[in-house]
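Before relying on records like the one below, remember that each one covers exactly one chain. Contacts with other chains, cofactors or solvent are not represented anywhere in the record.
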Amino acid sequence: MVAVLLLGVLGYGGWKVWRSVDPFTTPVSEGCQVTVSGQSYTLDLEQSGNAAIITAEAMRRGLPPRAASIALATAMQESGLRNIDYGDRDSVGLFQQRPSQGWGTQAQILDPWYSSGKFYAALVKVDNWQSEDINDAAQSVQKSGVPDGYRKHIDSARAWASSLSGSSPQSLSCVNRSTSKGSSDTLAKTAAKGLAGKATITTTTSSVTVKATSTQTVWAAVAMIMASNDSAPISSASVGNASWNHESKKYAVWSGVTGPSSRPSGAATATAGTVRLIE
């Protein structure tokens, strides 16, 4: 019996080692993942791009990450973070807003920037929205027939808002196995619009570079750019001495830490970040 047990233990240990180096291990699905406070939450590439727009619109309006948390929890429940052209009665879009209820035309609501903006415009009119329970704040805007439906998305929404707002550096990783090179201008579009006036974003044919006086703003821009990689697959990203390199089978982790600031000519001390497209 002892010999059998020993063989069993050795066999299990050998299996674990084999699994750790097995080249045939099933790769993760394409998408992006945030890891905050030891918990990971994954979205596919379409969803992560929409999450970036929702967060970018909050930042464009000068709203805190909590606003993005509420909006993301709402869109996760209402549409699964997909910009759908159907829904209950005349509901459409990320937030399932209804033209007949004054949210705008169907075409307007199907613009993620417009629908996000309309959500925030309604949210800031809610008393105590900055301290109210996230589910209840969302319900105050949506008036859903499932009033507690947003609650199950709160942890994920908060993690994504924290990462995309730059509040949780080095928390985002993505997998996109496409070999079709996209446009750096398209890749940078969400961050550039959301952070206009707060960061300088420049592009070349193969990279996007961000500079800002706030390190958090740079991390927000880099996270938004990475989350938008459905439009242009990326190979690497860096902020200071921290770096990330795409891996096709798993969500790669960041290495290093944010390094010293760089000082561009004629500007205040700034932090720089770069995202590179696949070659």
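The longest helix spans residues 2-21.
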